């Protein structure tokens, strides 16, 4: 009912959203990932579609149903997420990066399963390489969409998040205390732009992620007008 009644504040707007963790392979049976559930990103995709936007959701490995009316692209690694996002990004009105992208990947994924050596020899050392920064790459396009970053920080929330916003050259960052929020159904958000800060929910405390997503989409609609 809420979906049907939602004001179509994003009609005619194209939104690209990343969500979930990434999975960086070590060998055919192992890899490095994180505890992002994807719930916040999927809630935002749903809220944006309810508001009438044309939504593309690039998702890392998560177990969540695709929100109604949303075009979903599944990926595994950060590089795959980057390669899915970049060709689409220039055609969007907004880009919302909620994914918990792995900062590093094993420099090479082994073709065959790593085996323990005979006689219990030493444990392998995994050399790492840096992944591309998807959000910074989109923000650096000649005519970038309106870019919204997410920052989960364990301390000095506002300071660290605003430094990140400026470093990536994006107009808006959404800060939350992580990793305490991973997998939960509720959250508390702090929106930070060059002008100042705004808390969601407005009254303080916590709210479920779909409620927060709808508030964020309301805010974004105003910024895109
Ligand atoms: N992000 C991205 N690609 C990456 C890393 C991060 O698109 N390779 C995006 C995230 O989706 C998020 C924002 O950048 O919207 C901030 O991510 P975060 O991990 O907090 O920032 P980093 O720049 O990676 O800094 P650090 O992890 O060292 O705090
Ligand atoms: Ca990071």
UniProtKB/TrEMBL annotation:
- Domain DNA/pantothenate metabolism flavoprotein C-terminal per the UniProt entry, residue ranges: 10-222
**Which reactions does this protein catalyse?**
N-[(R)-4-phosphopantothenoyl]-L-cysteine + H(+) = (R)-4'-phosphopantetheine + CO2; (R)-4'-phosphopantothenate + L-cysteine + CTP = N-[(R)-4-phosphopantothenoyl]-L-cysteine + CMP + diphosphate + H(+)
The UniProt keyword set, sorted, is: Decarboxylase, Flavoprotein, FMN, Ligase, Lyase, Magnesium, Metal-binding, Multifunctional enzyme
Q: How is the cofactor bound?
A: Binds 1 FMN per subunit.
Binding residue positions for CTP: 103, 113, 132-135, 150, 164, 168
Cofactor(s) listed: FMN; Mg(2+)
What pathway or pathways are given for this protein in its record? Cofactor biosynthesis; coenzyme A biosynthesis; CoA from (R)-pantothenate: step 2/5; Cofactor biosynthesis; coenzyme A biosynthesis; CoA from (R)-pantothenate: step 3/5
Report if keyword Flavoprotein is assigned: yes
Q: Name one GO molecular function term.
A: phosphopantothenate--cysteine ligase activity
Q: Where is this region: Phosphopantothenate--cysteine ligase?
A: 15-225
- What EC number(s) would the UniProt record show? 4.1.1.36, 6.3.2.5
Question: To which protein family does this belong?
Answer: In the N-terminal section; belongs to the HFCD (homo-oligomeric flavin containing Cys decarboxylase) superfamily. In the C-terminal section; belongs to the PPC synthetase family.
Q: What does this protein do?
A: Catalyzes two steps in the biosynthesis of coenzyme A. In the first step cysteine is conjugated to 4'-phosphopantothenate to form 4-phosphopantothenoylcysteine, in the latter compound is decarboxylated to form 4'-phosphopantotheine.
**Name the UniProt record assigns to this protein:** Coenzyme A biosynthesis bifunctional protein CoaBC
Organism of provenance: Pelomonas aquatica
């Amino acid at each position: 009912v809420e979906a049907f009644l939602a004001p179509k504040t994003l009609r005619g707007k194209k939104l690209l959203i990343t969500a979930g963790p990434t999975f960086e392979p070590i060998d055919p049976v192992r890899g490095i990932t994180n505890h992002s559930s994807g719930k916040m990103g999927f809630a935002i995709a749903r809220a944006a579609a309810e508001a009438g936007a044309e939504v593309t959701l690039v998702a890392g490995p998560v177990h969540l149903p695709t929100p109604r009316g949303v075009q979903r692209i599944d990926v595994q690694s950060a590089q795959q997420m980057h390669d899915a996002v970049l060709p689409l990004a220039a055609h969007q009105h907004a880009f919302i990066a909620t994914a918990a992208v792995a900062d590093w990947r094993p420099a090479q994924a082994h073709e065959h399963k790593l085996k323990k050596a005979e006689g219990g020899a030493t444990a392998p050392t995994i050399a790492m390489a840096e992944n591309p920064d998807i959000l910074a790459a989109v923000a650096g396009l000649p005519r970038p969409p309106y870019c919204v970053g997410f920052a989960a920080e364990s301390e000095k929330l506002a300071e660290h998040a605003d430094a990140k916003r400026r470093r990536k050259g994006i107009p808006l960052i959404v800060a939350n205390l992580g990793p305490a929020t991973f997998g939960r159904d509720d959250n508390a958000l702090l929106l930070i732009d060059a002008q100042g800060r705004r808390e969601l929910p407005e009254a303080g405390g916590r709210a479920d992620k779909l409620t927060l997503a709808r508030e964020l989409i309301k805010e974004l609609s105003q910024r895109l007008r």
